[in-house]
Write a structure and sequence with these properties.
This protein has 43 residues and is mainly alpha-helical. It has 1 helix and no strands. Helix content is 91%, strand content 0%.
Length: 43
């Protein structure tokens, strides 16, 4: 039973890391768009 719980815990941690990576990628893309708009003078 302990091994099963370790597997579930590890999978949960992995999914949390993937979600954080997706959030960071979204933030990066948003920053690139903002930079592009600033450089082009768009609002």
């Amino acid at each position: 039973m302990a091994i099963y719980l370790e597997v579930i815990s590890t999978q949960s941690n992995s999914l949390q890391s993937e979600l954080e990576l997706a959030r960071l990628k979204a933030a990066e893309l948003s920053a690139v768009v903002e930079l592009y708009h600033a450089l082009r003078g768009w609002t």
